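JOB MANIFEST
job_type = single_chain_structure
chain_count = 1
residues = 480
[input]
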Amino acid sequence: MEIDDLTPAEQRVWRAFATGAEVDFRDGSDDWGPERTVRATVLRALLLNGPRQQGETAALKVRGARVTGALELRYATVDSVVHLTHCRFDEAPDLIGAHLRYVSMRDSEMPALSVTRARIDGSLRLTRCRFAGPVRLDGAQIAGALFLEEAEAGDADTDRPALHLHRIVVEDDLCARGLRARGLIRLDGAAVAGSLDLQDAELTNPDAHVLQADALEVGANLLGRRLSTRGRIDLRGARIPGRVDLLHARLSNPGGTALRASSCVIGELWLRRGPRMEGLLNLRRAEITQLSLEPEMLPDQVRLLDLTYTFLTPHVPAEERLPMLERDGQGFDPHAYEQLTAAYRRTGDDQAARVVQLAKQRRRRSTLPWHGRLWGHLQDGAVGYGFRPLRAAVWLLSLLAAGSIAYAGHPPPPLKAGEAPEFDPVFYTLDLLLPVISFGQEGVFAPSGWYRTLSYVLVVTGWILATTVVAGVTRTVSRQ
């Protein structure tokens, strides 16, 4: 390509390339006329075989240009730095399979972008870019960071994914703070060595996936403070050793799943200070070191089967945590109660741990046949399944007082006159109530009528009370 074949605007870019000087076409107006228009074929010729000047570093640095035609660098190798910022592209750039050094297209507008399977030795900066169609970065390898802050992507009138980031490899951070995306964002199989930053982002894809990130690998943190979503977030199988920070986040997918983090390995999961989640929360089989979860953010439905966590914050009464376990519509899960019990015991709150265990037995009772439920009610009423031991004393003292008063007013006659010891209503009642202890009263006196019936009731009640105490205490001791 000869310089005489170029327009004045293109000649400026051509001459500046050899020394890496910047050409700024911005003049403060919205006019994208010929004086700031550059053909994509000219830019391609510069990048592939542009002029060089000894002692200078060639680079393409253009601001505020209108680029006509398609910038096609498919499978090309470009050694020069590319800065095409504040530009307007009439057609989508095609960088599929290209090997590039560094690319910045920030503050630009374009119909779409294809960087599939490209290799970039530095960073790719798409800050504040506006894409009318999909952005394809699937399979790309970026040695630096990927910047998508305040970018806008997706077409509200189509069902096409907004961002194709599946299987992307980013060896630094993926910065997408303030991103506005309409449609699906695919991050499944992606690997980000640093942090994935989605703070203040707005992701919209109602009644469908808004973020699909199965098997995502993040080296540090997933930051989502003030994240707003309308659609399903899927992090199934993700590995995030740092924290998943969803403070002040608004997660909404009514009638479906709002957040799925099943089978994940996460250092810390923060779900606090935001409005109540709309949609189902799925944490099945996840492994979380610290679960920071406010009960107020929990939705009506949760899935917690085989969820494991070491610490649970903030510390709130057990009565505020138990509804979380009862909202799992998949039935009784004893493991969930054991996890909550262990979390309270780690903080030294044994009283809360006992409350959780009592709730577990009551929930389990509803799954038993009628005779098991009956026995469960007896244990619950008598000693609270062993977690309310003072109830046994209350029952014993109440029955002792009732029997003592009854038999004190109507002492039973002795079986053998002259051989029986002096009658004591208190110890006689104790003899009836305590099946394994004898005070020598029960066997030598014979009540009749209603008082005989009362003695039978006391004997039976004593056996039931003793059995439930032994069962409850055995259960409690076996858990220590």
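[summary]
The two ends are 84 Å apart (CA to CA).
The longest strand covers residues 202-212.
exit_status = 0
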